[in-house]
What does this fold into?
Amino acid sequence: MSLLKTEVAGIYFENPLILASGILDENGYTMKKILQEGAAGVVTKSIGTVERTGYRPPIVAEVTGGLLNAVGLPNPGIDSFGEEIKVALEAGKPVIGSIFGGGVQEFVDLAIKMEGYGANAIELNLSCPHVKGVGSEVGSDPALVTDIVTEIKKRVKIPVFAKLSPNVTDMLEIAIAAEAADALVMINTVRGLAIDVYARKPVLSNTYGGLSGKAIKNIGLRYVYEVKMETGKEIIGVGGIENAEDAIEYIMAGSSAVQLGTVLYKKGRQAFAEISSGITQFMKSEGFGSIKEMVGAALP
Amino acid sequence: MIHSTITGIERVSPTTVSIRFPWEAAVLPGQFIMVWIPGLGEIPISLSHIGDIKGITIKSFGPTSEALTKMKEGDRIFFRGPYGRPFTQVKGKILVVGGGSGMAGLLPLINSDTVGVVSARTKDELLFVDRFLEGNVIKVTDDGSAGIKGIAVDGLKGLDLQKFTKMYICGPELMLRSVYRYIREIDVDAEFSLERLMKCGIGVCDSCSIDGYQLCRDGPTFSKKQISGMHEFGAFKLTESGKRIALPK
It folds into this structure.
């Protein structure tokens, strides 16, 4: 296993595969099981200040190349989430607390509480594409992104990751605005739509959703590569990783670790063990001695 | 989404209907589909009929199921699936234990030799008792309007459970819990079909999870042994928002 170890912002991961936010991360027991079955870390569902039920189903549509989802940020509210973190931490691996808010103070309060629950890092959801007033609406304003990241960095000791949206004119501009973050997580889902022609209606109850899966892999790769080249920041790559080769592509584009999400719909929780073993095999046959050696290997 | 046209509506109780529609898919007992009413909502429903003309059996409990109970022959029905791990089928004598609408998911298992314990709040809500041979069914009602007055587990007390090759139980979680506790120490194989709030149906949203297992993908059927190791079974559930709440003791 030591061949696969990696580090992001000083946090040790036994392999480069982390569970992405929004997938199987609402219940502490699920996160714990995923960690025990091979994930090196998990990111929780995004948690806000108050309880939200999320959208009415359909919240997900199976589409060409992946999934379209608009779950609507359901969460019990930060004050009711400590128990889930506690259970997840029993696996003895990093748990990253994802938070969303509408402004600086809200983000700061959430981050402080997440740190108090024992989360090993904070992931700022600056990119949810389907809820008004939060997520990408916040994350597309560079000045606001700078304020949120800078303030949180002053108030918590654990590393802060900024998860960025591709639904902006210039992702690089936002990445630069998030300069104070310890690492960038990119990319979140791409805003999309699916229509059932026989029903003559959009499938999702929210109409619009976020596209994830294979269909967005090459978009994610491009952004990771470009931002790594321009900023040199530590990056956690995410978007459409379904096998070892996809993960290695993201690593060679400049990611120190990657996140898996939609692949769990295809392969189930065993995706982690399967992709880990594929990466090991590749490293052995291609003569790589560490993940670090592969990070950014494709950059000029 | 898949769509089909409804070819028949069968009323199975004053509050419950079976909706029948052609769909050429291989479906096994215990599996479910996500049924969509455009513009209204999407809910998981077990298949009660798994031949070429499939069927779902539903009672109104929310806006989507309410709309389904009002559908007519010739209407279009939208759904996706089939999803979920089916019941493990065995040769030999089986016992099915159904609580309320839970009988719908057990219907495909019933043959001429099957014994059933059918429970409901009241006589009118006992489902599919006519599918068992005379003498093979024990009725249980909360109000005593038919059969034994009590809950499902009271219907088990007069049976020698060890003579069954397998038991299959489907119904609300508190009913499953009482049956589980009753048979825990008895040497009989059993499978439970669990019910939790389900949103995605495909193993990604975590809404229906129990002890790390996704009901929609690893279940909804779980063996007695699997249930025995679960902390959350009969004890906790997550609400629509993901808030953890304790179930009544």
Notes: The two ends of chain A are 29 Å apart (CA to CA). Chain A is about 35% helix and 20% strand.
